[in-house]
């Protein structure tokens, strides 16, 4: 998931919101539709940034038993960055 979709939606929304002055399409006003698209694009952009900045955590626990029956547990936690977005 990249940044192109949300930025494009914000741009189209701003064009509709700022370029048209009280134009109507049926019962809807074009500037209102534009502001709705701007808000949707901003929300989409925030969700994309949050998703790409989260780290993945993986925990592994190993239990070993020696010849006398004593057990020892070892826990290993690794963190990795999420994969990069696909190149377009």
Helix content: 40-55%
Uncertain runs = none
N-end to C-end Cα span: 10 Å
Strand adjacency order, main sheet: 1-2
Treating each run of at least 4 consecutive H or I residues as one helix, how many helices? 2
Reported for the largest beta sheet, the result is:
2 strands, antiparallel
Brief synopsis:
This protein is α+β, with helices and mostly antiparallel strands. It has helices at 4-19, 30-52, and strands at 24-25, 28-29, 56-65, 71-80.
Commentary on this structure:
With 88 residues, this protein is of the alpha+beta class. It has a domain at 4-52. 44% of the residues lie in helices and 27% in strands. It has 2 helices and 4 strands. The chain has helices at 4-19, 30-52; strands spanning 24-25, 28-29, 56-65, 71-80. A hairpin with a 5-residue loop joins strand 3 (56-65) and strand 4. It is rod-shaped and about 85 Å long. The mean pLDDT is 85.
Ordered list of secondary-structure elements with their pairings:
Layout: H1 4-19, E1 24-25, E2 28-29, H2 30-52, E3 56-65, E4 71-80
Antiparallel strand pairs: 1-2, 3-4
């Amino acid at each position: 998931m990249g940044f192109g979709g949300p930025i494009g939606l914000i741009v189209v929304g701003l064009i509709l919101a700022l370029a048209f002055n009280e134009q109507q399409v049926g019962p809807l006003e074009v500037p209102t539709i534009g502001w709705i698209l701007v808000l949707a694009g901003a929300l989409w952009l925030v969700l994309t940034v949050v998703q790409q900045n989260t780290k993945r955590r993986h925990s592994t626990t190993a239990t070993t038993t020696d010849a006398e029956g004593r057990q020892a547990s070892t826990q290993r936690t690794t963190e990795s960055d999420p994969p990069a977005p696909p190149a377009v």
